[in-house]
């Protein structure tokens, strides 16, 4: 479809967001509150994504949703924790508390996708300039000088649109990224994560326990439930995901911080890898969230990096809109890329290092890990610096936070 030479006021929408993920909805809310005309298209009906997926929400994500005004609606759906315990192979490790963040914020929250996605979806439905279409597929698009010509299919109807900017929030296999010809670099770990939910009567603490097989996250959920994210070899993960429940619990329980547990959810597994898009923008196109990057689940960074993408891009575009600038201009989009590409790279390398260093049984490395954890325990400044990094409270933050 050829560029029809439309000006900004003639576009059908200012921004098309492909993907109704939490990151896509957050970006839509930020832009919509700035008066930007936004269309979000999502291929699934109902909840976009896996309802059982579990997230560790870091303080920066809470700050973004507080700024939007949606946090009071999300807060009742999550479990708050005020202690993080890190340990290596069951030995004593290091504990983080709110004092390590200056005592002004809770350490974090754990959420289930199926409980918080509907809250954000309902929230954007009340923003007049935001439109959400489910069961709608992107067919193709053409990047032009003054617009993006887009073909989408909705309920078997082909719809042609002209928009100022297309944003890929459509996940690791992003159609937007692939059609734009943006490559990625990265690797697979030879590992898979097995996830499930347990029930146990224990106080809400977030645990990250490192074992030679890989990290094990034990995360508190509402109603005395606990989310498990267990990194194993592919063979181990595929075996235990289908093993009898009793055998599975007998294998898992020795690795847990507490022993009295029952199985309270389905088991799933997925392969893990590391991925960074070679660029986040082209003229009239931007990538956010998993479309732009992916990392090992250790440290719970994934969604939080995407929410920071959304807040950064949202602030830049909303500011450009206030000044009457063309949102698809490359120089505007590059200010987003220059901020987030190196920040994300540092976070991705951090998670990669954690997984590689703490998944080795080599004796000298085990000794080095013990020294590092002891230093974190004893040196308050080092502990605070580490926690601020994990919480996303570092580097250039969006001005509105």
From TrEMBL:
Keywords: FAD, Flavoprotein, Monooxygenase, Oxidoreductase. One of its GO terms (cellular component) is ubiquinone biosynthesis complex. One of its GO terms (biological process) is ubiquinone biosynthetic process. GO terms for molecular function: FAD binding; monooxygenase activity; oxidoreductase activity, acting on paired donors, with incorporation or reduction of molecular oxygen. InterPro entries: FAD-bd, FAD/NAD-bd_sf, Ubi_Hdrlase_CS, UbiH/COQ6, UbiH/COQ6_monooxygenase. Its cofactor is FAD. The keyword Flavoprotein applies. It holds the Pfam family FAD_binding_3. Residues 12-340 form the FAD-binding domain. It comes from the Bacteria. Belongs to the UbiH/COQ6 family. This is 2-octaprenyl-6-methoxyphenol hydroxylase.
